[in-house]
Structures are given as structure tokens and as C-alpha cells.
Specification:
The complex is a heterodimer of chains A (about 120) and B (about 110).
Chain A lengths: L3 E2 L4 E5 L4 E7 L6 E7 L6 E7 L4 E4 L2 E6 L4 E6 L8 E8 L10 E2 L3 E6 L1
Parallel strand pairs in A: 2-11
Antiparallel strand pairs in A: 1-3, 3-8, 4-5, 4-9, 6-7, 7-8, 9-10, 9-11
Chain B lengths: L4 E3 L2 E4 L5 E6 L6 E7 L6 E7 L14 E5 L5 E5 L8 E8 L8 E2 L3 E5 L1
Parallel strand pairs in B: 2-10
Antiparallel strand pairs in B: 1-3, 3-7, 4-5, 4-8, 6-7, 8-9, 8-10
The chains are: A mainly beta (about 120), B mainly beta (about 110).
Chain lengths: ~120, ~110
Amino acid sequence: DQQVKQNSPSLSVQEGRISILNCDYTNSMFDYFLWYKKYPAEGPTFLISISSIKDKNEDGRFTVFLNKSAKHLSLHIVPSQPGDSAVYFCAASAHYGGSQGNLIFGKGTKLSVKP
Amino acid sequence: GAGVSQSPSNKVTEKGKDVELRCDPISGHTALYWYRQSLGQGLEFLIYFQGNSAPDKSGLPSDRFSAERTGGSVSTLTIQRTQQEDSAVYLCASSPYRTGYEQYFGPGTRLTVT
């Protein structure tokens, strides 16, 4: 039973355009969400996070949007660059209600940015 | 500063043999995690160490898997009597925060059981 779902295994975008990566979750207790980027043969690197008290967090070209009513978050990359080509993982955690608080990861979306 | 390091980077072993995977976390990080990523799958939580507290072993898939963390720093993940389904990339992460916040990952150990 997947609590964090990334339904698109891959996404291809032209350089300079917007990349939108989506993530859905089922556990309403999740209160913190993160995005990680992973290059081949490397470990995931932290990209950006958002607390459930916010609906948007921005860091340079990267913006994460959270829609709690829809249990949906998305990562926008504008403008996309070839170096952004990687696998992007969505993760979530819950810190209250007796939860352990461990990060739960989605299966990832492979982004390809074409020059 | 130095990030999380893991060794070996690649390990090929025969079915039934034991293997040990090592993780050196970022200095000062009190939390240490082990995950594995099988082909086409997300990151599967295995075990979590926080300071001197008893580890959270809830993610270990079987009693063939164990881990220890000596002196609150280096950690070793041991898999006994390896099976082909144990083939995966094993990732270690450390964090200065309590669980559920940002973690910093090592490059992983790719384990292949033949």
C-alpha cells in the first residue's frame, strides 16, 4: 500500500520550458514534504521541502506547491536545464499522532531535459 | 565538508554468503538511516539510529538483516545468508535533525547476489 505515489515514471521537457513533477499521498497525517534529486550512481540529494502549514515554497528555479485538500504536491522547475535531468523523488513524513516520523518515499520520476 | 561515505561502492557475492556494508555519516549528525532501492522501486526504509536510543528496526525485511552503530558514528549493515532478492542499492543517510526532516545520503553500495 503506497502512501506516496508518483504516477509518472518519466517526463521529457524541452530546455527552457517548465517541468512539473507530481506527487500524491494518502496519509492525512503527513505534515512535511520533501523533494530529492538523484543522478545515476549517486545518492539522492535534498532539493526543497515544504511544511503543511504552507502551500508554496520557492528556492531559485524550484517551487513546490502543496494542495492539502487534494493530498497533492508538485515540483515546478523553471526554466528547465539539461543538468536537471535526473530522477526526482517525493517524500513525506508525519510528526504527530504517534507516528514514527520516518520519511516515506515515492518511486520517483525520471526527468529528461532536452537541449 | 565531507559528506556521507559508504563502502564498498560495489559488492558481488554468491548466494548464501554473508556481507557487511559500511557507512560513515557526516560528523556530528546524530541520526543515521539505512534504505535500499531495488530496481524500479523507491527507497525502502530499513533501520534508523538516533543518538543512544534503541534503533528503529521496523523496516528490516527479515532476521537475516541486522545493523549496528558503534560510538554513535560508523554503522555496519550485515546481511546473512544472502539471497538473490537482496540485490539492490543500499543507501545510508545521516541527519542533524530528528526523524522526518532533511537527510543527507551517501552514494550507496550496489549489492549483486549471484
